[in-house]
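User: Please go through the entry that follows and flag anything odd:
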Amino acid sequence: MNKWQAEFARIITPRLVIATMGNELRADDAFGPLLSARISRVLDTPVLNCGMTPENWTGPIADLAPDRIVLVDCVEMDKPPGTVAIFRAEEVSLGGASTHCSSVALLAKLLRDRTGADVYLIGVQPRSVEFGAPMSPPVARALDEVADVLLRLLPAQRGSDPMRGSSCRST
């Protein structure tokens, strides 16, 4: 288990909520929405695809009464494309990582203030967020890795096959 996986395993609680962000039309920025599509119907944990307007989802997230929230998005970390890391929201707002979406730090603060939940960010280093471009191979591999880890560590819905989600592959 690598560093981000061990940190994610440590923060799992029964009231965890996962909120993905991104734009499926912008290459590697599709990471969040594609992850949501892959795992949301399999996991018992709520997974919300907040798309390009995550601030509009603070109410529905708060309604779930989470004690921990994990945001998922592309993050500029000055690392090789496809690198995955997990941050506390405070690290993002203090400059531990910069994102292409300037509202991530504000969103984390809004969620923390509204729910009292600890807020984390799983970020992947993009290669490209060019409009109309396909997802890059290193980020597609990271998508497979993150989906497989979440499917392995989080409880599945009763009657679902946790391997169903991992069979999808991005192109």
Q: What stands out?
A: The first helix runs from residue 3 to 11. The CA atoms of residues 88 and 120 lie 4 Å apart. The longest strand covers residues 68-74.
